[in-house]
Amino acid sequence: MNPYQWIWRYARRYKGKMWLAAILIIGNSLGIIVVPLLGGAIIDQVINQGHTERLPWMLAVMIGTTLVRTLMRYTYQILCERVGQNTLYDVRKDLFNKLQSLDFNFFNTVRTGDIMARMTGDMDAIRHFVSWVSYQVIECVLWFFTAVVVMSTISWPLMLALVAVTPLIGILTIKMSQAAHPVFFQIRQSFSRLNSMVEENISGNRVVKAFTQEPYEIQKFDKLNDDYKQRNMASAAVSRRYLPVLDFLASILTVIALLLGGYFVITKQMTLGDLVAFNGFLWMLNQPMRMSGWLINDMQRFSAATIKIRQMLGAKSQIPVNNADHYEKIHGTVEFRHVNFEYADDPTQPVLHDINFQVAPGQTMGILGETGSGKSTLMNLITRFYDPTSGEVLIDGKNAKDYPVRQLRDQVTIVMQDQFLFSDTIKDNINYGNRQADPGFIHAMADVADAEDFITDMPAGYDTVVGERGVGLSGGQKQRISLTRALVKDPAILILDDTTSALDMETEAKIQKELRRITADKTTFIIATRISSIRQADQIIVLQHGRIIERGTHDELLAKHGYYFDTYQKQLGALGVAPGEE
Ligand SMILES: Nc1ncnc2c1ncn2[C@@H]1O[C@H](COP(=O)(O)OP(=O)(O)OP(=O)(O)O)[C@@H](O)[C@H]1O
């Protein structure tokens, strides 16, 4: 499907408006012929033949048609703008909905700046095409052919002389189109790179400043900015190469018309009035020729803009978001059977190897392991952010893949390591997963997460607006708000991925105690670096290089004198507690 067929699938929803606009465009284009024809008639009939009584109605018709034409043009311009805006609204909506359905595999490989470039610059190229370029093209084609027909009826030999130039214009237009297409595609790519860089720079501004890398960032920006400029210059060079020639050919038409037309008048092959009328139509040939270059540019820009948007709209999620007709309540048994996993963007690096375990509803599993051992990845398979490469994740004995994914995630909540808060009120951040949550329940859960006191101490309490990504809150406060958000969701399976790492041990111990109380009926997974966070768990697994190397309860693991025991000893040592004294 070419870009024009693709956009037509959206624009045809507004067929009514488009037909009306088309009728008005045709009416306007036909109306154009009135003024030059009457101009010629005034010369021949009023000035040369002395029929002065005809002048008033001729002038009245000229003014009348001009007024009607202006009204028509105004109306179809508004109609086209509406169709353009509506079409853009639909494409943007589809794109945003698509983004919501795409999985982590997509977001791992596509940069945010790239997506933003699609949602802004590319969208505008589409709007410009539908709202402006489309009717300009129709106008130009209509003007050109109307002029050819009318001018031929006035003097076909003169018209034939002018038409002789048009094949050259056709060839130039095609050549320009071919030269412009790759350049516009490169401009879009370059714009994406520039956008991504700026987006990352803004998101990472604290790191930039902390490491005083502003000069490096400026240098990086300058390079991309220069690349963008160069590509735009290349596009301008294409225009520079062809547009003056097209302009020149358009001007040549006037010279031919005057020279040859003058000769025809002198030799009485046509009247002066006819030549004036003929000359009056000349712009209807000129204008499309002059415009053709610009319109080709705009069409190529549109075509380049649609490529990435269509790629994004066509992106397939490996984990489709499907809806179900009935809601299946999850009780909380989680079983991993011979699970292996590697990330799609790095398939050479197996991350999890033959993972097997089972957790009963209401039980707590602790997960310990060195950094990069696969702990978060393991949890991401329960929430189905990814599916295992082989093996099965079973929830209540049923393969996780057989649950509608939104239903599953509705009952499995993860508090991620990298907490994200929206620039919204604390209240709206907390009830993000459960908009109907009872205020009493929210306060109770905030109490469990030890967040109630610091929230109510804030000037606007729960209505305090936090900055983007939770700016204005400490790391520990963000962690506690994120934990409250997960608890308010009241899931059957709760996953805490290093959720309390930023808290002091006393606060952590308090939260752990409260959590044990309220998660008695939930299956809970706790990823932790501190053994104190998981020692009460019903079972603990230790991961190393994606394999379970130890499993058991706290006491069983200590008795093994392995990795867990060593970690425990180190952590006690760090606290200045001798073994046996804890
Ligand atoms: N999107 C990804 N694409 C490719 N590899 C990844 C991706 N995410 C993580 N990995 C790799 O998978 C491995 C396990 O990562 P994971 O985040 O699960 O470890 P972890 O045990 O949770 O680490 P930490 O304690 O530091 O959070 C690491 O080697 C990491 O580099």
From TrEMBL:
Domain ABC transporter: start-end pairs: 334-570
All copies of domain ABC transmembrane type-1, residue ranges: 19-301
Primary location class: membrane
CDD domains, per the entry: ABC_6TM_YknU_like (cd18542)
GO molecular function, one term: ATP hydrolysis activity
Topology in the lipid bilayer: Multi-pass membrane protein
Keywords: ATP-binding, Cell membrane, Membrane, Nucleotide-binding, Transmembrane, Transmembrane helix, Transport
Cellular compartment(s): Cell membrane
The protein, known as: Abc transporter, atp-binding and permease protein
Species this chain originates from: Schleiferilactobacillus perolens DSM 12744
Source taxonomy: Bacteria, Bacillati, Bacillota, Bacilli, Lactobacillales
